[in-house]
Write a structure and sequence with these properties.
With 437 residues, the chain is mostly beta strands. The chain has one domain: Porin. The protein has 2 helices and 18 strands. It has an 18-stranded antiparallel β-barrel. Strand 17 and strand 18 form a beta hairpin. This is Alginate export family protein. InterPro entries: Alginate_export_dom, Porin_dom_sf. It holds the Pfam family Alginate_exp. It comes from Candidatus Berkiella cookevillensis.
């Protein structure tokens, strides 16, 4: 794409979102940062030869949750009111040219909110509208990324500063790009590909900047951490990729989120000439560490298979997050995850229930020119006692046009098991985005 010009900007300002895209469960770790092509010969050229990019995303979101409000009368509970949010993300990023193998990136993110009398962005950001269903897109401005990278060592990259991190399919660590303000981390990261087929990753996280980082009044919008992430993957061609990981989370703001998790993941593919059969299996074990006041152990399993064709994908899977029927705070948890793309788009299970969760799901994606369609069905149960939580249907349709623009419509319809007092929830999105890089 061309660099930003006044003509391009005039088109963008008339625009506004893409929204709900999903990261396949089959993806392996790949760095999201790469050394710029432009080379500088002086410190002044580092900025002069850099590259700016703009991104705009306007979105209408409707959310309904029939759950009772926390402070309502338990005898005659009052459900949350339907919420509507009209928001616009404006994002400006600047990547410098590289010099002596150093380069930098800075990104600002602003969210504007319009006609917001029915918009509750949650976490005490809009206490005057707490009776409405939460839509966590708060208005405000944030410095979403600010980093310096160094690539002077052979097949090694060092990244220092505020950055995005996505590991594997985002189940444990992700950037939650669906929300208007993405999640980022204040961290030191080392990536190494010295040995052919082997990718090594380590990151020390000092702070987690959540999707509400642009609001100082938000509860735990920025959480102080002493977290270590280790991830390594090896390509065992032609059999697939095996990944091992260890994540030590020490959350100083919310001690109950602290844990130690280690696991193995296997991605494979079988070539069927015109199509491929993809499969993934994963196991993880999690335990509380010394910083968590609750002592617990929990396990995680994932099995998924899919047929992939250039014009469509069809797959099914089963995900299992262990819980505990005797006490809370002992379920398998993923507090740094790209939560929206897992266990249904209605976000009913963005936090693992105390009883744990099993999710049997089917999905299909289709592509034709600039049109993409996706559909998914989920069946949810409690892991600890097999209580039925409900089922969900998700539908999404997007259309890309005029090189820079994308329009998206999405629907999530969760139907709770009434006999188990699980409330229904629905969400709808209509968005238009424009990106000039």
């Amino acid at each position: 794409m061309p660099c930003c010009t006044v003509k391009h900007l005039s088109h963008v300002f008339c625009a506004s979102i893409i929204a709900c895209y999903s990261i396949p469960s089959f993806s392996a770790y790949q760095s999201i940062y790469h050394k710029p092509e432009q080379q500088a010969n002086s410190f002044l050229d580092i900025l002069k030869e850099g590259h700016a990019s703009l991104y705009f995303r306007g979105r209408y979101e409707y959310a309904n949750d029939d759950s009772p409000q926390p402070d309502s009368n338990p005898i005659d509970p009052i459900s949350f009111k339907s919420s509507r949010a009209y928001t616009l993300t404006s994002r400006l990023a600047y990547t410098t040219a590289h010099m002596c193998n150093f380069w930098g990136l800075m990104e600002f993110n602003n969210v504007s909110s319009y006609w917001n009398k029915h918009h509750n962005s949650g976490a005490f950001t809009t206490p005057q509208r707490k009776e409405f269903t939460e839509i966590p897109d708060a208005k405000g401005t944030s410095l979403n990324q600010a980093l310096i990278a160094y690539q002077g060592l052979y097949n090694t990259q060092l990244i220092l500063g505020r950055q995005k991190i996505k590991l594997d399919n985002g189940r444990y660590v992700g950037s939650v790009d669906f929300r208007q303000t993405p999640q980022s981390f204040d961290a030191i990261t080392i990536e190494n590909k010295y040995i052919t087929g082997l990718e090594l990753f380590y990151s020390y996280i000092d702070s987690v900047n959540t999707v509400l980082q642009n609001q100082d009044t938000a509860l735990f919008a920025k959480r102080s951490n002493h977290t270590h992430l280790f991830n390594s993957s090896y390509d065992i061609y032609p059999f697939g990729t095996i990944t091992g990981y260890f994540y030590y989370i020490k959350d100083q703001a919310v001690a109950s989120l602290s844990s130690s998790t280690y696991g193995l993941r296997y991605n494979g593919a079988i070539d069927l000439q015109r199509a491929k059969f993809l499969f993934v299996s994963e196991y993880a074990f999690q335990s509380s560490n010394s910083y968590n006041p609750v002592d617990y152990n929990a396990e995680y399993y994932l099995v998924e298979g899919a047929f992939s064709h250039p014009i469509c994908d069809i797959g099914l899977g089963y995900e299992w997050l262990e819980g505990n029927k005797l006490s809370t705070g002992k379920a398998f948890m993923t507090p740094l995850s790209d939560y929206h793309i897992f266990n249904g788009w209605a976000d009913r299970f963005s936090v693992t229930p105390a009883l744990g969760l099993t999710d049997f799901y089917l999905y299909a994606n289709a592509r034709y020119r600039q049109i993409e369609f996706e559909a998914a069905y989920h069946n949810f149960h409690a892991e600890a006692n097999s209580t039925k939580f409900g089922h969900e249907i998700d539908l999404g349709l997007s259309y890309s046009f005029l090189k820079y623009y994308k329009i998206y419509a999405g629907l999530a319809d969760f139907r709770g098991k009434t006999s188990n007092n699980i409330a229904d929830s629905q969400r709808f999105w209509l968005s238009l985005s424009a990106e000039i890089a």
